[in-house]
Amino acid sequence: MELEQRSEGEVLVVRPVDKRLDARLAGGFRAQLAELVAAGHHRLVLDVHDVEFIDSSGLGALVAIRKQLGDSGELAICGARETVMSMFKLTRLDKVFEIFADEREAVAALSRGSA
Fold first, then answer.
1. Would you call 99 helix, strand, or coil by DSSP?
2. What sign has the CA pseudo-torsion 64, 66, 72, 74?
3. Residue 74 dihedral angles phi and psi, to the nearest 5°
4. How do residues 95-110 score in pLDDT, each as one tens digit?
5. DSSP string, 39-87
6. Is the whole-model pTM more than 0.85?
7. Does domain 3-112 correspond to CATH entry 3.30.750.24?
8. Angle separating helix axes 56-69 and 23-38, nearest 10 degrees
9. Structural domain boundaries of the chain?
C-alpha cells in the first residue's frame, strides 16, 4: 500500500493512496504505520479522504497501531467518507478514535495534545 506522508510540526500526516483498506492491503498498511511509530512518530493523523471502503482487517490495523502508540502517542482520523464512517460507527470504533471532519482540525487537536 502506498502512503503519502508529511510533517506538520510534531504531527505526521499520513494519507493512504489506495481507495480500499481491506484484507488484501491491511497487513502492509499496518507494517508501514508500525515502522513510522517505531521511528519515533507518536502523533499521527490518518487522512482517509481517498478511502472508499474499509473492512474489519483495515479497522484491525488501526486498532493495532493505536495499541502500539499506547499512552505516549496519539492517532486521529480525518476525512472519512460516509461509507468509511459507517464502519467506524457500526463497530463503535468512533468511540475509540478521535475522528475529525478535515485534516486542519485533526492536526490542530494533536498539536495541542488534546485528541
1. strand
2. positive
3. -135, 140
4. 999 999 999 999 999 9
5. TT--EEEEE-TT--EE-HHHHHHHHHHHHHHGGG-EEEEE---HHHHHH
6. yes
7. yes
8. 10
9. 3-112
